[in-house]
Every structure is written in C-alpha cells, then in structure tokens.
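Cross-check.
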Amino acid sequence: MGNWKSKVMLVLVLVAMQSFQAYSYDYHSLSIDCGATNTTFDVQLNRAWTTDNEFIGSGVNKLVSTSASFPQMNTLRIFPSGIKNCYNLPLEKESKYLVRAGFYYGNYDNLRKPPAFGLEVQSGNINVNVSTSLSSDPIYHEFLLITKKSALDVCLIQTQNNQVPFISTLEVSSVDQRVYRLMTSNIALYLESRINYGANQSVPDRFPTYVDIYNRIWKPEEVSTYRNLSLGIGSASWDTAENYPPNVVLDSAIEANSVSESIFLPINFREKSLVSAYFVLYFDITPAYQEGEARRKVAISIDGQLLNITRLLGNGRCVTVSIFPVNVTGGTANLTISPAEGATSPALLNAMEVFSVISSADRVVGTFFGIVLFSWIAYRI
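Predicted model, tokenized:
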C-alpha cells in the first residue's frame, strides 16, 4: 500500500511539474540576449536578460570584435545555414505586445562587411529589411501588434547570397489593450520615431520598468532653433496620462521662442511610398511653467492640414494627443505646433511617438487607410 501511495504521489508531482513548466512558457515580457550563454541581470534597467536557447534550435553563438556600450549587444546569434530561421515565443493569444529586435554587427567576423537581410514577424504578416552597419550604435526594429495565436514567430531571412542574417537582442513587453487605443486589431504599428524633446545626451534613452512600464526607448533630442527646457531626471515613475509616458520624459520639452512663433518638425519615414501614420504627442507645461501664466493652447497641423486644437492643462498635468490615420507621401511629414487663437504663452512639445501602419489582416506587407481621421485627446486630471 505504501508503495502504491508513493507512486501516486510521484505521478502527481510530475504532473504538477509539467503544468508549471507549461505555465512558465506563457510570457508577459521577455528580454532575450541572443547568443549569450548565461542569464544576466541589468541593474540599471532592473531587468533580467535570458539566453535564447529555449526559443530557437538553429544558429551559432558569436561574440563581437568591437564592443558596444549596451552589454547585451556584445553577443549575437548568426544563421549561416538555411534561408529562414525562426524564434518561437509563447505569448497570450489576442493580446497587445511591443516587440523589438536589436541588431549590432560589431565586426564579429572581422570582415568589416555588415550584412543586409529580412526580418519577418507573425507568420509573414510583418516584413522589414534590416541593413546593418559598422556604426557603434545598434539598430532596432520595433512593432506594436496583437497576437493571432498563443505563440509569436520572429524569423531572420537570408535575402542575398553571402549575407548571413543575425540578431543581437529580442524584447517583448505586454501592453494594455487601452494603450495606443486607436490601433485596431487588423493592423500592426511600426515605430518610426520616439523622441524625448529638450533632453540632452546625458539623459538615458531607456528606463527601468518602474519608470516606463512598457520598456520603450525614448531618444533624447535637443533642437537648437527652440528653447530646450529640462528639469533633469526627476520622478522615477510613469505618468497616469494616456499611454503612461515616463515622468522623466515629461520633465523636458522644446518651447517656441515667442508666443507668435510655431514649432516645425520634419518627421522621416522608412518607406518613401504612400504610408498611413499614427502620431502621439505629449504635452506637459511643467518644464516651462511660470507662476501665474495663462493656460496654453496649441494648434497641431501635419503637412499644412489643421488636425487638432488642444488646450494644455496646468502644471504637472499631461495632455496626450493621438492622431490616426495620417496619409504621408514622399517619406517625410511636416509637423507644425502653433499657438492657437487667444494663446498668451508659447507653443511647446515634450515628447512624440510616430508609427507607420502595417496591415496584418492579410499575409502581405501593406498599408491601412481609414476613412475617418481620429484625433484623440486624453487629459490627466
């Protein structure tokens, strides 16, 4: 009898272990250091980087010859065999994710010949060309998508002879369905630009999850033709405004030189053909606030078309403006932020995200053009 009970207990333990293993493969976020042999912990980002061994069975681990400033870029996995090699990431079905693939050549083969190849995501619904370089800066391709299945495939495609595909990092972050709310289930978004305006190069471009819950990269950028305002790195948390921008990002801004002047910003796109774009603008007057100033009001135009007039709120109160879809031709959109009628303080801008829209309803890369233009304003009260 005792032996029978022991066998039953052993079976139950094995079943529990299998259930735990299956559950452990359902990830809400992943930080994969491709080509690494050990899991590491990034103290600055408060993030563990795992190896990629359990997500792919092909490829060869390599080390770069020219080290990168971001440690996880110093390893990579190359794919010298096969036209198509795929990672398989277990995720929740019909859920929204930020997916970012990072590439750093680092002259790992000592040939000084950075390759070009293809990147395919979600069974070919999303395709981009990856062109690497000898630069010390990594290249990222980032997407916002809604999963169709309980697993996501990320594939490296050889598109030219003697051009060996590789990948350095692969990151996935679960995103609340209410975030980037104008995004519908039949599209995916490709990140064109995400800028922290007014911040100098001493401000990091990425933050721990307790500062930015969605692990975004915010490029700091000063614009010499406008006032660059910054409170420094302040509150270590995210704001409760639409899309939860980090407070660090809202603590800097560019401001027009006078109340009669507009802010002009050219936005470059990867594709030069007609694309549909999704703009997100963040406004918080805190870096520019002066005691007793009147509330600001800005008019937002893209390529000369007035799309939104927004009243900015008081000190420490963020306003998020989302505009979608915006048709862009020729690879550049010209954004203008002007003082609206009756404004008594200059126009400003804290941060901006710009995406191009990829149709994921069909198995081809394309664009999505809506009939109605949505301009969504979210106020944090």
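Residues 13 and 19 are 10 Å apart (CA to CA). The first helix runs from residue 2 to 24. Passed to J.P. for a second look.
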